[in-house]
Amino acid sequence: AGSVRYLGADYSFNQLKAWQQRANALFELSGVVTTDVDETANRVAVGVETASAARAVAKKLAARSIPAGAVRIDVVGQIHALATLRDRVRPLVGGLQIRFDGFLCTLSYNATHGTQGDGFVTNSHCTTNRGTVDGTLYYQPLDQVADQFVGTEVLDPPFFQRTNGCPRGKLCRWSDAAYVSRAFGVTASGGAIARTTGANNGSLEIAGSFSIGSELAGNSVVGTTLNKVGRTTGWTQGNVTNSCVNTGVSGSRIVMLCQDFVSAGVGGGDSGSPVFRIVGSNTVQLSGTLWGGDSAGTSFVYSPMTNIERELGALATG
Q: CA 169, 305, 152, 115 torsion: positive or negative?
């Protein structure tokens, strides 16, 4: 009834498939990307990176006794393996998944400390015992094996009580931050934060990177648009809703002093996410490190850079 059309074909599928198998030898040439039986075009399709690679392919086809008329050569460019925030990534960048003691958190940002050398920041609660230097070991992304070992906790300031406005009977800190000394031989990209395919789209695929150009002094102004990149919810973005809030941590005696709140997505495992303001196409101002969120996953809390460096000391993040 006119819904089916018969089209002439120059070659049978079996012929094309046999020629494609021979064409696999083309991968011995530099710049060959794909070989395929294109059923629609009734041809063997060969994808190459450049026009010069196409010329080399044409010569190789003749040597393999594959009819030139049965092949279509297309310049398709390069195909890259796509990494996510949960994959093994080197050099290290901010926003990646890290593991400690069987738990998952996020690497906040790479830094250099005046006395502890090169390393990175994550949360104090992403250590074996928060507020204590116990030499917690970190792996990226997941397996606790030598190839994925990336560093050892070296700074995790203790809590204080009944000073600096800390309420009676509570344990206080200015930041939920710890410093990890990077393991020998592990490379890191200073000032880089992983950039996924877009804000608030749920993607964990790394599509580039942000570059830290500066650090925010003090707390963020309410209404400022901030971002975070974390291993669970990726890149989320929203506005600061509250600034310099003394915040009690559920189920504990801990009060975090002078923290900022942002109305943006968050989930378990995002602890340690770098928080930043975009100031250029890929340039950001580092604002702090995320450590908590509401039960609905719609608002996160972070420690400002001023508070982090008040406790850990000056950090070079560029």
A: negative
